[in-house]
Amino acid sequence: MDEDERSVDAIAIQLTRLQRIRERTAAQMRSKDGVDPAAFAVLFRLLCDGPMRSGALAEAVHSDASTVSRHVAHLVDRHLVERQADRNDGRATVLVVTERGRETAERIRRRRRENLTRVMAAWAPQDRAAFADLLRQFVDDFERAKPAMIAAIRQDQHQFDLETENDS
Hints:
With about 170 residues, this protein is mainly alpha-helical. The protein is about 75% helix and about 5% strand. It has six helices and two strands, in the order H-H-H-H-E-E-H-H. The chain has helices at about 5-35, 40-50, 55-60, 65-75, 100-120, 125-165; strands spanning about 80-85, 95. Strand 1 and strand 2 (about 95) form a beta hairpin. The chain is globular and about 55 Å long. It starts with a helix and ends with a helix.
């Protein structure tokens, strides 16, 4: 294995480790806040982009409609988001962040900044900036590569299924 392969393996291991840590942390935060951390992305997207229909929101957060519907229901139940008539089409509704939702989002945003600052307390400002740039590039590239990765996994699965069928 060459140096580049070792680096890619190390990144994969650390991403898996980070995902597990975040999942455990999210579970602990959920019980404390009563707000599902997975719904935060929905709340923040509505804050950034303004009122929108559920379908547009699902697209904006790169999720399917049923998942977004579940998150919206969670947020509506907690009075963080409300449904209002669409001004352009009275038959449709748009999702709007409530004042309570804005306050909750600001509290979450403040806590997130404090937590990340705590994690990177010993980092130089230029290292934080470099990490932010590299992470943004990684996520953008991951998103662009995702269709090809899914296609490759499906192809591998299809090949495996054919080989298993032939072995039977």
